[in-house]
Design a protein that fits this description.
By secondary structure, this protein is mainly α. The protein contains 15 helices and no strands.
């Protein structure tokens, strides 16, 4: 109960402020869209850039952690896509969009905030290690699968171009790449630039959480209830369970194991809806899954924190 009150609920209070502000007309939908664009296109990319640029890769880059998290993520994508196609009889493109919702955890907006409150700022190194590969891996897998499904019969070169174009239009991917360039190249950043980025970074998480609440009110609880329940189960239970099992078997150090499992236990991010909207597939299911799973994370994150100790 203490974890629920002290770690999880404050994060959802900020989300709730955004939800109520738009619901009661104190803040406009256009204002929320502007906040979300600021957070996703500027503040969070700055956060990721600085985090990767300053990350001690030798100490933090634990292959066992990455293996446990991303085997779980890929398994979630496979299970979600297969269930949508074979069990719920959706077409292959809808099924891939639904599988992407099972793949893409809300590792930044929810994951960083809850991990920091649960395990402290020092524990975020493990979370940042996951986040460094999160967008490239998830978008790479999802876009590749969708381009193959949409361009059956076309040359591999056409598909490779479609994947590359979509990847390198993603500002989060570009920020992460820039962070690696600075880190691996040993490029010093001027103090003035660092201070300016720090000012923007301080606004990243609270702004993004408030905006997330405002965005969620635009999603209506509609769609196939069984499909949505499946997405929630895969995202909130199966993915972290696989990460926990593999991480335990590989003896992942506790200081990165706990943030890794908790990051895996986050609800599908808004990127799940963005991906569905980008291809015009399963948008209603994706939107509702984000809404329902985000609400359920209050309880499931508490459960995983209790399991992790």
């Amino acid at each position: 109960m203490q974890a629920l009150l002290e770690v999880i609920l404050p994060v959802f209070v900020v989300i709730g402020f955004g939800y109520v502000a738009v619901w009661r007309g104190f803040f406009t939908s256009q204002g929320v869209d502007a906040l979300m664009k600021f957070s996703q296109n500027f503040a969070i990319p700055c956060l990721l850039f600085m985090a990767i640029a300053n990350l001690d890769l030798q100490a933090s880059l634990d292959i066992r952690l990455l293996a446990s998290f991303y085997v779980g993520a890929a398994s979630g994508f496979a299970v979600g896509t297969a269930a949508a196609f074979y069990l719920f009889k959706r077409n292959i493109e809808d099924s891939i969009a639904i599988g992407f919702c099972c793949l893409f955890s809300n590792s930044v907006l929810l994951g960083l905030a809850i991990n920091e409150r649960a395990y402290g700022p020092d524990a975020l190194a493990g979370a940042y290690t996951i986040i460094a590969f999160h967008s490239p891996f998830c978008y790479g897998l999802g876009i590749t699968a969708m381009e193959i499904a949409r361009n059956r019969g076309q040359s591999p070169l056409v598909m490779v171009r479609g994947v590359a174009r979509a990847m390198f239009r993603n500002v989060l991917v570009l920020a992460i790449i820039a962070g690696f360039v600075v880190n691996l190249g040993g490029i010093p950043l001027p103090g003035v630039l660092r201070d300016g980025l720090d000012l923007v970074i301080r606004a990243a998480l609270p702004t993004a959480l408030f905006a997330l609440g405002g965005v969620l009110i635009q999603y209506k609880p509609e769609g196939d209830a069984r499909v949505i329940a499946m997405v929630c189960a895969v995202s909130l239970i199966l993915h972290p369970a696989i990460t926990w099992s593999i991480g335990t078997a590989l003896a992942v150090p506790k200081d990165v194991f706990q943030p890794g499992v908790l990051t895996a236990a986050m609800a599908p991010g808004v990127n799940g809806y963005i991906f569905a909207n980008m291809y015009g597939r399963a948008r209603r299911v994706a939107a509702t899954s984000v809404l329902v799973a985000t609400a359920l994370t209050v309880l499931t994150a508490w459960m995983w924190i209790t399991v992790l100790g």
